[in-house]
Amino acid sequence: MGESPPAKNRIHPAALLALTLLLPARAPWAQTPVAGPAAAKPAVERLPDTVVPSHYDLHLYPNADQLSFAGEVQIDVRVAGAVPEIVLNAKGLVFDEARLDAGRLAIVTLDPALEQASLKFAGGVSPGAHRLRIRYHGAIARNTLGFFAMDYESPTGRHRTLATNFEPASERMLMPSWDEPGLKATFRVTVDVPADRMAVGNMPVEAETPLPNHMKRVRFAPTPKMSTYLLFLGIGDFERISESADGVAVGVVVAKGDAERGRYALGQAARLIRYYNDYFGVHYPLPKLDLVAAPGEIEGGSMENWGAILYSQKHVLFDAENSTENDRQLVFEVVSHEMAHQWFGDLVTMSWWDNLWLNEGFARWMQTKAADDLNPQWETGLQASSVAEQGMRADAKPSTHPIEQPVASAAEAELAFDEITYDKGATVIGMLESYVGADRFRDGVRLYMRKHAFGNTVSNDLWQALQAAAGKPVEGIAEDFTRRPGLPLVSVELERQEPGSGRAQLSQTRFFEAHRGGGAEPPVTAWRLPLAVRSVGQSAASAVILDTELATVSFMSAPPAVVNAGRKSYTRVRYEPSVFAQLVARMGSLAPADQIGLVQDSWALGKSEYAPITNLLSAIDVLPRGADPIVWLQTINVLEAIDHLYDGLPAQAAYREWARSRLAPIGELYGWNQSPGQAASATLLRAHLLDALGRFGDPAVIAEARRRDSAASADPASQTPEARRIARRIVARNADTATFDRLIEELHTTHDPLEKQDLLEALTAVADPKLAGRLLEIAVGPDVPAGTMPDLLEDISDEHPDLTWSFALSRVDAPGFEMDRSTRMEVLPHLPARSADLGRAAELRAYASAHLPAAAARAVESAVAQIDLNARVRMVQLPRIDEWLKAEHRSALAAITRELK
Fold first, then answer.
1. Top-level class of domain 52-341
2. Region of poorest pLDDT, from 13-22, 238-247, 689-698
């Protein structure tokens, strides 16, 4: 336990390369399904459309101490035609009694596989309106889906919060219902709770009634028509702060004592209510909106329940004395994302989970839009290049899927929340806004909101509204990118270069991450791709629609020209060597977005053997010291990704020396503390930059981190929050046993869940495998904030993928390993994904075949493809980087020698 996997499971690097070359070529676009039980086709889980609910009246009786609850629900339904039974969703519930119209008793049959209950009544059910009354009971979960408990320590002792988190299909764990997004209804919720606890729901409290035994009955006002997954109930030792914005009572609900840490989120939520009321053109329709802080992390991060958003604590709490600039922007980003859902998802909801991207892609894009409009100094749009990268990396794998994907089951819906849905979706929406123009795009969104308020939609409803408002063809472009999988690759060849003008040929193919350089590729139907082409140094760009496999574009200024200028479109760009060389020579003249594009595309093209990997190094080598901080931040991500691939190789030292040589001057420029007038983006870079230098072994940075960490331990006020946070992470990364023990002692002694989480996040950087093994034991133990275990395992696996995977395999099926089905399907395949050992891929496939449902196949194959790519880059590309570094070293020595002479 905690040791390296047995040698027999490893493949020697040389043998791995030989094996890769000897194996039959597999087309990168071909998918290999997981064998065994996981390959079985799941049953379709849609309910019959003969019975439709219109209203739920729910009364709950939770027992927090016993982790159980009882419930009674009365459901108004309309039956379209005579039916022998009523079928609805239920999961993990025990039916005590079910009656129709206060009379006939039902015979209840449960189908755990389909998560459905069939209620049969003697003589069947006649057409028309009926009322169904069900008494039942169930268990309160310890994971964070369904109806669950979260325990936490505070200065006043240990407390327990109860809350709900339903998306996509866990409301059926709270009550029997028609748990599908298209079956909207109204809800009235009543709950009996301890008299000293606060209950929070979607709507304001309508009445409170004292009960015996220090209890009270809380009844909430009825909700508007909405989907079941948006229902919310929270019960805890809460306090609430609030203010009015555009007539809406905006509140932040936190554990007692945390009110001040909710002030920042409250102020931003009030700004966002006004902003979204204007942007969407439809006033927020509920009387109140609460932001509820969970004492830990919840599945999905945060959840957009209508009128009562539930947030993981780090997504809503901001401590002016201890939080960082990154924390500040994270809170805004997540608050704005979930609040965007109050319109895009809650007011207007997708009809079924195959159009989930209508919710998540739009909200992912909207969080950037809102930040750019309300906090332009953050450069959030430039930061969002990482969002596009995540989508493109996922879309280049064999496991990709269309944005609009078929979803047959709850398990499939759970895994639809991925990079394609969120990140590709957001990038495609941003591309469309750029294509039609911001004002016309907003007009189309307003039309869509007005037309479909309180209803359900499919993607075409949005396209039609945008096209009507824009007066430009939108549907064809949108459908190409939402109904087809894959990432376009635009290749650029210079046809003619004359004084003041030029012409280039653009060709379009599909980019595959598993490309092997020169291999046959399948024919591709060209995407209708909007592109901006701009000559370097010019402000104006030419707009073209590349809708054929081959096209010619002219530009009325001197080459070189940047294709996909501003990086607004969803594509990779490959330049012929002469054009690439010209662009690199003008690197300092490129716009920040284009500098990022050149670096990121060079990294992707190099990994996948479309272009020399040394193009990337050349681009980084000439990146100006004074480039925009976000450009350097994104570049550091690439440098760290390469460093991971070097783990365990002797040549890592030379690579780290080169990386330090590029980053050390930037470190000198930004230092450890914010200078007057520096942008907020400089603060983000500073933290990432110093952490990277600590990773790459910069002795001065490591020594200064230790000094500052020691000073902060004696007097926290002696260091800024950013300096304290980054110093602790660098110290943790380079920790010996004594230092690790000290940090663990701090973890055990603090009663602040937020501080615990910060400490754990720092500790996940630890480089020593033995200490990482100890941290894994802590991560699955009782001393971590509620719900944080899955994310901790993922974070540790980023540094130690093989160790974390082996540890998880040894624990995942043991009692007490609190990880629900959805999280297992998402998290377990991620753990070995940074490995370059093909043995891990084989183990993952074997485990998935035996233990994971069919819906996990795509996540498994994505991880397998990543491991394969890691192995290939490690074997093929790192030696090329080594040679380049040696040549650079020789060139540097020659230059020094010339100067000495």
1. mainly beta
2. 13-22
| pLDDT band, very low/low/confident/very high, at 889 (cuts 50, 70, 90) | low
The amino acid present at 506, given as its one-letter code, is L
Q: What number is the average pLDDT over the span 463-468? A: 95
> Distance (Å, rounded) from C-alpha 659 to C-alpha 665?
11
3-state secondary structure of 803: helix
Domain 349-482: what homologous superfamily?
Answer: Neutral Protease Domain 2 (1.10.390.10)
Angle at CA 713, nearest 5°, toward 709 and 714? 120
Long-range CB pairs of 211-217 (<8 Å, 24+ gap) are 216/192, 217/190, 217/191, 217/192
Other beta carbons less than 10 A from residue 548's beta carbon: 11
**Mean pLDDT comparison of 154-163, 523-532, 621-630, highest-scoring range:** 621-630
For domain 487-586, give its CATH number from 2.60.40.1910, 2.40.50.140, 3.30.9.10, 3.90.1150.10. Answer: 2.60.40.1910
pLDDT tens, position by position, 352-372 = 999 999 999 999 999 999 999
How far, CA to CA in Å, does 559 sit from each of 499, 536, 552, 585?
9, 7, 15, 12
- Average pLDDT over every residue of 157-175: 96
pLDDT, tens digit, 9 for 90 and up, residues 475-511:
999 999 999 999 999 999 987 666 666 778 899 999 9
Angle at 354 (CA atoms; ends 348, 474), nearest 5 degrees: 70
Model confidence pTM above 0.90: yes
Closest to 252 (Cα-Cα) out of 236, 237, 265 = 265
The token pair at 701 is 């940075």
Alpha helices, DSSP H, located in 610-698 = 614-621, 629-645, 652-670, 680-695
Per domain, the residue ranges of the chain are 52-341, 349-482, 487-586
List, by residue number, the catalytic residues.
Answer: 338
Cα angle for residues 29, 32, 38 (degrees, 5° grid): 140
